[in-house]
C-alpha cells in the first residue's frame, strides 16, 4: 500500500513510519509513505504557500499553485513507477466521516494521496480541480490535516496482511463486524478482587464464542445504539442476536 502525503510538516510522520505496527509495516515494505512539501515547489525566495483571503476575514489561505504543482509531481512519480494514481483526498472538517469500512476500501485501492491543509483553508480552485474526495475524523477542527491523515493511514496499514503479529487481530477489531469489540482479560486471574469471567477459563470454545458475541452486542447496545440499527439494516444480526437484544 502506497501513501503520498502533501504536508508542510513532513517530520510529523516519523511517528507513523518509525514506531509500532505501522513502523514495522513500512520497514517490511508492506506499506510506503512518500512525503511531499509544497514549499519545495515554490519559486519565490520566501517559499510562500499562503496568502490573505479575498473578501477579508481572519486567517490565511493555502495557495492553489504550490499544491497543484506538488500533485503534478506525485502523478509524474507514479507514472515513472508504472503506478496508476489513486484518489486524491483532502483532510477537511466538511469531509465525509472516516470509518472502518473506508479503511478496507482504501486498502483495496493500492495507493492514495492525502492533502494536509493548514491555516484557515485551502483555495477552492485547487479543490475543484484536483480533489476526488474529502474526509474527516470528526466534527471538530484541528490545526492541520496531518493528525487525521496519520490516523487514517494507521487504520489502513493494520489491515494489510502481515502487518499484525496475528492475522486474526484485525478481523476481531471493533466495527469489523458492525459492532464494538467484546471485553478482554489477561493475567492475573484475580486483580483487586475482580475475577476473569468463569466462561473464559473453562476452555469451551463454543461457550466462549457465545459469551463474546453477547458482550459485543451488549456493549454496542449501551454505548453505540446507532451501530445496532446499522447492523440490523445490513443484515448482520442473527435471530439469536435479536433475541438477546430484546432481553436487554
UniProtKB/TrEMBL annotation:
* EC top class, as a word: transferase
Output the Gene Ontology cellular-component terms.
cytosol
Organism of provenance: Polynucleobacter campilacus
Q: Does the keyword Cytoplasm apply?
A: yes
Q: Which UniProt keywords apply?
A: Cytoplasm, Methyltransferase, S-adenosyl-L-methionine, Transferase, tRNA processing
UniProt-listed Enzyme Commission number(s)? 2.1.1.228
Q: What is this protein called?
A: tRNA (guanine-N(1)-)-methyltransferase
Q: Name one GO biological process term.
A: tRNA N1-guanine methylation
Originating gene: trmD
GO MF term list:
tRNA (guanine(37)-N1)-methyltransferase activity
Amino acid at each position: 500500500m502506497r501513501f503520498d502525503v502533501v504536508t508542510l510538516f513532513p517530520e510529523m510522520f516519523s511517528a507513523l513510519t518509525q514506531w509500532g505496527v505501522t513502523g514495522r509495516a513500512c520497514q517490511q515494505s508492506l506499506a510506503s509513505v512518500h512525503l511531499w512539501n509544497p514549499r519545495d515547489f515554490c519559486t519565490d525566495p520566501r517559499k510562500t504557500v499562503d496568502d490573505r483571503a479575498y473578501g477579508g476575514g481572519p486567517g490565511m489561505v493555502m495557495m492553489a499553485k504550490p499544491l497543484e504543482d506538488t500533485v503534478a509531481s506525485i502523478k509524474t512519480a507514479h507514472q515513472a513507477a508504472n503506478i496508476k494514481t489513486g484518489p486524491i483526498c483532502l483532510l477537511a472538517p466538511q469531509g465525509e466521516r472516516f470509518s472502518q469500512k473506508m479503511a478496507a476500501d482504501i486498502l483495496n485501492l493500492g495507493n492514495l494521496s492525502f492533502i494536509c491543509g493548514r491555516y484557515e483553508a485551502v483555495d477552492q480552485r485547487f479543490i475543484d480541480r484536483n480533489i476526488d474526495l474529502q474526509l474527516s475524523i470528526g466534527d471538530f477542527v484541528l490545526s492541520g490535516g496531518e493528525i487525521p491523515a496519520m490516523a487514517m493511514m494507521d487504520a489502513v496499514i493494520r489491515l494489510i496482511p502481515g502487518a499484525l503479529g496475528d492475522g486474526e487481530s484485525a478481523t476481531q477489531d471493533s466495527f469489523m463486524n458492525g459492532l464494538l469489540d467484546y471485553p478482554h482479560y489477561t493475567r492475573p486471574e484475580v486483580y483487586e478482587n475482580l475475577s476473569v469471567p468463569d466462561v473464559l477459563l473453562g476452555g469451551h470454545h463454543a461457550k466462549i464464542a457465545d459469551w463474546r458475541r453477547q458482550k459485543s452486542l451488549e456493549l454496542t447496545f449501551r454505548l453505540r445504539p446507532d451501530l445496532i440499527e446499522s447492523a440490523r439494516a445490513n443484515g448482520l444480526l442473527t435471530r439469536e442476536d435479536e433475541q438477546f437484544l430484546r432481553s436487554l
